Amino acid sequence: MLIAAVLIAAAPAFAGARGSSSAPVAIDPQGSPFDQSIACPSATQCTAVAGGNEVTFDPSSPSAPHPVVIDGASSLDDVACPSTAQCTAVDAAGNEVTFDPLAPGTPTLVDVAGTQLLNGLACPSRSQCTAVTDPAGDEVTFDPVSPRAARRARIGSSGFFGVACPSRSQCTAVGNFDEVTFDPIKPSTRRATSIAPDQLEDVACPARNQCTAVHDQVEVTFDPLFRKARVRTRARIVQGELLSALACPSRSQCTAISSDGEQATTFDPADPAIRTSVDLRGELTGLACPSRSRCVAVDDGGNELTFRPRLPRRGRLSRVAARCIALHAPGSLRGQLVAAYLRAAGLRHSALHLRVTGSVRYGRCGSTMWAEADVEPVPSQRLTTREQVALQDHSATFRKLAAGRWLNLSLGPLCGAGRLPTQMARAWHIVCR
Question: 90, 168, 268, 298: which one has the fewest Cβ atoms less than 10 Å from its Cβ?
Answer without folding.
Answer: 168
